[in-house]
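Quick log. Single chain, no ligands specified.
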Amino acid sequence: MKKLVFPLLFVLFTTTLQAQSKVFREVGEDIATQFKPITQDNELVGYLAFTRLEKADADSFNYRVTIMDENLNDIGTVNFREENLELETVAFEQNVLCLGYIQTALSGTQKIRTMRGYKKVEDAAAASHLLIQFISLNGKVINSFYQEAALSTAAIPNRNPYATAVKVVNLLRYGMQIRNVPKVGFCLFFGDGFKQDLILFDMKGAVIRKLPVPELADRYYLHASATYVYLMEKKDVRVPEGGYKLCVYSPQDLGSVIDFDLRDSKDNWLKVLNFDNDPVTGDAFVAGCIISPAMEKQSGTAFDYSNGPYIGLFTIDLGGPGRDMKANCSYWDDGKFPGLSADGLFTDKEFYVKYATAAKDFNGNTIFAGTALSLVGSAKFKLSDGVFVRQEASGRIVLDNNVPCDDSKSFGPTGVLNDLDKKDFYKVVNQDTRSNYMIIDDADNIYVYNVNSKKVMRTIPHKDGSVKTDVYPGKEGHIVVAEYHRKEKYTRFSIEAP
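-> predicted structure:
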């Protein structure tokens, strides 16, 4: 079980506190707080509240970073002064927090009425920076790293055709991602449209290596383990759901190890649903769908799904010390799995699955989760149950369970499924009991599902009067229930058992 390890001063302080809930109240317009999870090895180990306080002078603000443990106990506070900042990401390794900010003169949405105003926004975007801050748990800023970055200015669609102002926002085109590298430090990826870089830091915030990423892609995903640092690139142009490439680097110095396209042995493209760590071995894995070569350019509508956009499921274990990379590809297009047709229809239930994510269990299986897509009448479709499909280590595919959730209205064959499907899936793992859970966040309700027992443990409505509720993964084996009280203007976060 991963936990933040605190200096003695904070251990003595937190043993008297066992908070499992915390209230955050809205304050004045000039004071704003961002609430972020602290992650280590892709798992949540604590929380961080980043508060912008009053203006210090014409160009800068006073800021406060409040560090909390996995039970929402306050364990440390850092106060500092900087120019306008937006916190993007947080990671943790060996009692050091690494925080990534965007520093820009203008943040949030800007209303533009003249070319002069637009030029002001563009100038602010071009003069922006990244700030990478390294903080110890005793409240000391160990180091700070600045990197120039040119933000992109994007217009926000306006529904009012008679509006006299255009809304624009400045953003980092490819975003910023920070991952801890066990026993080494941290790895940063960022891209602004002019350059994409990987930067490896040691525990003191010193740069070990800065590596330009030469290949331009539509999206990038950073992942790290004790064995390797991975950068996954995604190109959309030729194959909308394929086009993935995996680049593997040494965690000591970002030396290139290998890079390869994500295809199966038959040269079919693979659609990635999840890039995570195996709960048993700790090794990284990639899982998703095998794309049909006949459908690789189309897969977004209900009609496309009924024509079989995929021919199977895959899991690639990326290996570790003494363990080679291993691919498990299961094909249903030859009709060898009972109850599963050649185009991916579960015949006993009469539904297809719009696959959304995948997770490894403690028995060597990969559990795929998604939404049931079924035909209504002769020419209509609907999205309904949450579906769990098990890919076993032997390659066998089994319908593990389907859970009644919030049904969509019926729609025609041209309905775009990504727009119509309101479900989001979040995994929760309990290492002590070797249990897997899945949070199904649907349109009206949230369902907490136990994968091991195949039961819905809790059903929580999103809205109850003036209270809006959301549920997220919490500390190991727990969930976080966030209740926003609109009238009283506060949010309560509670850590609870699934």
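Residues 115-126 form the longest helix (12 residues).
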